[in-house]
Amino acid sequence: MSQTTFTPQAASRMSPQEVRSSASLAAVIGLRMLGLFMIIPVFTIYARTVPGGENATTVGIAIGIYGFVQALFYIPYGSLSDFLGRKVVIAIGLAIFAVGSVVAALAHDMNGLIVGRAIQGLGAVSSAVIAFVADLTSEANRTKAMAMVGGFIGISYAIAIVSAPVLFGWIGMSGIFMLIAALAVLAIAVVIWIVPTPDARPVHRKAPFSTVLRNVELLRLNVGVFALHATQIALFVVIPRALVAAGLPVAHHWQMYLPVMGLTFVLMVPAVIVAEKYGKMKPVLLGAIALLLLGQVLLAAEPHTLWLVATFLFIYFLGFNILEACQPSLVSKLAPGERKGAAMGVYNTTQSLGYAVGGAGGGWVLAHWNANAVFGACSVLVFVWLIIAAGMAPPPQRGHGGATTGQH
C-alpha cells in the first residue's frame, strides 16, 4: 500500500488562472456538445421529410457516421496539437465542424446529410481540449477541472434535449444545423480570446497505449462508455417516433424531456456524493448500470404510452447521468499520472465508436425488425456490461486530508 499526499492548499483550491482555464475550455466543449446534442431528439423525425429518410438504416448511418469519423481522428488531433499547439488545432477542428454543420444545413437528401455529418466528425477536438486542460492545471486540481468539463457537458445535454424540439418547430432542422455552426464559431472566439495561453509548452512523458490497453480496470470502463453511448443513441433513433405515435407532437417533446432530465440531474447529485465522498464508487456504478438495464427492458416489454415512456426514460437517464458523471473521474483515478492523457484518448475513442454503432446499429435493427427489438438489443448489451463491471476492483480511495490511497 502506498500513499500520495497533497498539500491542503493544492488539494482544496484552484488558482484563478486554473479556474479561468478550466471554465473557458469547459465552455468550448459545452458549446460544441450543445450543438451536437440538439440533433439527437429530432433527427429521426426530420429524416422522414427528406429523400432517403424513409430507410431507418440510412438514418442510423447519418446519425452514427459522426461518431465513427470522430473516433478515427481523436488520437491524431491530440498528437498534432503536441506539435502545432493546442489553440491552433482546436480552432481548426472547430472550423471544420462548423463547415460540416453548414453542409448538413444545405443538404436536400440523406446522402448530403451523411456527408455533412462526416465532415462534422472530422472536427474531433475533444482530445486536444482535454490535453489543454491538463496543460493549464496542476495534477492536484486536474480532477476538479475534468469535473468542470463534465458538468458543462451535462448542462449542455440537458439544455439541448429540452430545447431541440422547440427550436425544431421554430427554425427547422436546417436552422438547427446553422445554429450549431454559429456555436462552433463562438467556441473558436472563446479559444482565441478567453482561454489563457501557457507561457511555455508543457513537456509530457510519452504514455504507451499498450500499457493503457493492458489495464483491465480501464478496459472495463472503455466497454462501459461504449455501451452507454451506443444505447443512448439507439434509444433516440426510436423514442422521438414513439412519442409522436403516442400522440405527442415533436414541438411538445420538451414537456417530457424537461421533467425527466431535471429530476434525474437532481437525484444524480447524492449518488455521486456517495460514490466519491464515501468510497462507494463500485456499488453506485453497478446500481446505475442496473437502472440502464431496467429502463431498456421495460421499454422493450411494455406498451409505449406517454406516461410509461416518461417513467422508463426517467429510470434510464438516472443511471445514464450518474455514469456520465462518475466514469471519466474514475478513468483519471485509475490511470497513473503520466498515462492519463492516453487513457482518456482511448476512452473518448470508444465513446465515439459507441455513438457510431448505436446510430447505425439502432437504425438497422429498426429497419429489419421493430422498436422493441432495438430496446431488446440494447438490454443485451447493457447486461453484458453489467457482468463485466461486476468484477471491477474497488477503485482507489481518497483518504483524510486529501490523500489518495491505493495498490501500486
From TrEMBL:
Keywords: Cell membrane, Membrane, Transmembrane, Transmembrane helix, Transport. It is a multi-pass membrane protein. PROSITE patterns: MFS (PS50850). Residues 23-397 form the Major facilitator superfamily (MFS) profile domain. GO terms for cellular component: plasma membrane. It is found in: Cell membrane. InterPro entries: MFS, MFS_dom, MFS_trans_sf, MFS_Transporters, Tet-R_TetA/multi-R_MdtG-like. One of its GO terms (molecular function) is transmembrane transporter activity. The chain crosses the membrane at residues 23-47, 59-77, 89-108, 114-134, 146-170, 176-197, 218-244, 256-275, 284-301, 307-326, 346-367, 373-393. This is MFS transporter. The lineage of its organism: Bacteria, Pseudomonadati, Pseudomonadota, Betaproteobacteria, Burkholderiales.
